[in-house]
Amino acid sequence: MEAPTIGGMRVRKGNGETVRLARGASLTDFAEKVGVDPASLVQMLFHLGEMVTATESVNDATLELLGEELNYNVQVVSPEDEDRELLESFDLEFGSDEGDEADLAVRPPVVTVMGHVDHGKTKLLDALRDANVVAKEAGGITQHIGAYQVATEVDGDERRITFIDTPGHEAFTAMRARGAQATDIAVLVVAANDGVMPQTVEALNHAKAAGVPIVVAVNKVDLPEADPAKVRGQLTEYGLVPEEYGGDTMFVDVSAKAGINLEGLLEAIVLTADASLDLRANPDQDAQGIVVEAHLDRGRGPVATVLVQRGTLRVGDSLVAGPAYGRVRAMLDEHGDNIDEADPSRPAMVLGLTAVPGAGQNFLVVEDDRIARQIAEKREARERAALQAQRRVRRTLEDFMKSMEEGERQELNLILKGDVSGSVEALEDSLAKIDVGDEVSLRVIDRGVGAITETNVMLAAASDAIIIGFNVRPQGKATEVADREGVEIRYYSVIYQAIEEIEAALKGMLKPEYEEVTLGQAEIREIFRSSRIGNIAGCMVTSGVIRRNAKVRLLRDGNVVADNLDLASLRRERDDVTEVREGFECGLVLRNYQDIKHGDVVEAFEMREIPRA
Ligand code: GDP
After folding, report:
1. Under CATH, what is the fold of the domain 108-279?
2. Residue 29 CA to chain centroid, in angstroms?
3. Interval 124-139: pLDDT, tens
4. Burial class (CB in 10 A: 0-12, 13-18, 19+), 180
């Protein structure tokens, strides 16, 4: 069969075969799967009215449209589906309990505290943590590990409740976005002196969307201007009707600051759980759950607080958490005490992972380290591909300044690497002394001696950090990974210079920077050979404008074959011109470059100073 021509291009069609593509795939991914030239797909889409580049990630509809045009049955696979299939290939499944009803045991509810800023979420979490019976029994001071469990007595029984200790619904949303439904009950904190505010409504909507029952904590009742009745009235309008008005939502008046009625709140949580949820899990299986919080600890390496959802997690277990894996070397509870095992709804800080997993990612115990590593590696490769597809924008000092100008409160994360520990410390000390006001803060998330490694770069990518190399260089694939992940590495050999530049960035006084701006493209349609002036390209300007004094590059099948060239001449008809716009033909000659072919694209660009406000 004759290959069909689409917009003048010949593209081989399929026979209705199924092509599976990851969500967010690019035209290049598609082209690879079906064995065609990515540039032809770009052109094809162009003719269908969409302008995308070959490596840009495109939406499901576009992938399907392309499939239809080319006669392939495109199936877009979500990351969740992909992960499910990955686990299946190891005969594993995440998310459901093994066995039957008889294997299930009651587990404590997991609670997230949400609400408007300043209404007392942090204070309430602190108050509950400090007042909790379990801590007193243990006699220790509780530590912040991202989650904790408290005990309370309800109807003569000791009942436990697990609180996710990462205030704000950001954590809640992040976990939900990753498909990890960790929360059983949401406590909505509303300050009695302030009433329902925008984020109260937002939090409420999140909880409703997740189908999570809500307990309302009317906080700050110690204040004279507190009006708890008003809060009840306001929330009724949003469908949260207090029990005392005949509804089914429990409202509890508390004061996190004065420690009023915290027991009442705990009881309301237990009663709400009993009334509307059936919280049970199988404690006798390989543990599964989610990561609540994780970071890189200076002395202990990657540290992750996980919440066990089913099964029992034990020291010595091999586990995979997102793209990290390892054997549980030790586990700590919220009092900093070592524990040997953690049963359902128990948060535990896990030591022994190879990398830092993301909040909301799932973890599961597997048979041995080898399997854990294989799953982790596959996930990592996939995450990397997805990141690449997003063509993540570079987080640079310049970006940082820009978002500062937009008035956001900013934190600049840095990773410091130096040749000797003295220089790293000196650098860190001097950085700590930079004072540029409240809107910006500087945080050193990691430091170390020696070359900049791939691990440094991965951490920087995960936490939007910039790497400062002091008398050190990248090692192995670090540069490559930094380019791919969009991580900025800045090198210095004089401390004050490093300090000066970072301070300047923080204060918004960096020297002018230039960025490349594409002006336009022209396609070479004909080539005239002239012994006097060389090869003349007869072009059609397909987009933008070609300027006589702009820099140009030559593209062939989407690849740059020559860069940073000048034009020796630009003509329309017989006249020398300064520019030619889209839709017009022109003749041009590249200075000192003769190797042009029919179909090549000449791209004109300019370096422009990035304006600073
Ligand atoms: P968040 O932004 O929701 O985490 O709010 P915070 O827990 O940081 O509390 C904001 C402010 O309200 C802090 O100054 C607290 O001390 C204060 N606060 C919190 N709970 C109470 C309370 O029960 N009574 C009074 N009077 N102040 C409170």
Report:
1. Rossmann fold (3.40.50)
2. 22
3. 998 998 876 454 454 5
4. buried
Are both 288-377 and 393-509 of the same fold? no
d(C-alpha 400, C-alpha 32), whole Å: 36
Who has greater pLDDT, 419 or 231? 231
pLDDT at 10: 60
pLDDT in tens, 523-554: 999 999 888 888 999 999 999 999 999 999 99
Hunting for tokens 């799953």 — which residue is that?
Answer: 375
Give nearest CA residue, ligand 1 atom 25.
220
Most ligand 1 atoms within 8 A of CB, residue of 113, 123, 164, 193 to mutate: 123
CATH class for the region spanning 393-509:
alpha beta
Query: What DSSP state is assigned to residue 102?
Result: G
Provide the token pair at 201. 């409504």
**Banded pLDDT at 7 (limits 50, 70, 90):** very low
The label of the residue with tokens 């304006």 reads 611
Is residue 399 scored above 50 in pLDDT?
A: yes
Q: Which two tokens stand for residue 212?
A: 């999570």
Residue ranges of alpha helices (H) inside 109-214 are 121-131, 133-138, 169-177, 198-209
The phi-psi region of residue 459 (left if phi > 0; otherwise alpha if psi is between -120 and 50; otherwise beta) is alpha
In angstroms, the CA 36 to CA 45 distance is 14
Judge whether 229 and 193 are in contact, CB under 8 Å. no
Ligand 1 is surrounded, with C-beta below 6 A, by: 115, 117-123, 167, 219-220, 222-223, 255-257
Question: Look-up: residue for tokens 């997102």?
Answer: 322
* Domain extents in the chain: 1-77, 108-279, 288-377, 393-509, 513-610
3-state secondary structure of 573: coil
pLDDT tens digits, one per residue of 273-297: 999 999 999 999 999 999 988 888 7
Distance 124 CA to ligand 1 centre (A): 8
Ligand 1 centroid to Cα of residue 229, in Å, is 19
Probe ligand 1: pick from 257, 261, 409, max atoms within 8 Å of CB?
257
Give the model confidence (pLDDT) of 463-502 as tens digits: 778 899 988 888 878 888 888 878 888 888 777 788 888 8
Distance separating alpha carbons of residues 488 and 466, to the nearest angstrom: 5
Specify the CATH architecture of the domain 513-610.
Beta Barrel (2.40)
Q: Pick the residue whose CA is nearest to atom 9 on ligand 1.
A: 120
pLDDT category of residue 571 using cuts at 50, 70 and 90: very high
According to DSSP, the β-strands at 18-22 and 73-77 are parallel
Q: Tell me 358's DSSP state.
A: P
Q: What is the pLDDT of residue 48?
A: 78
Which atom of ligand 1 lies closest to the CA of 254?
Answer: 23
Q: Which of 404, 405, 325 is nearest to 363 (CA)?
A: 325
CA 54 to chain centroid: 23
* Residue 410: per-residue pLDDT: 63
What is the dotted CATH code of the domain comprising 288-377?
A: 2.40.30.10
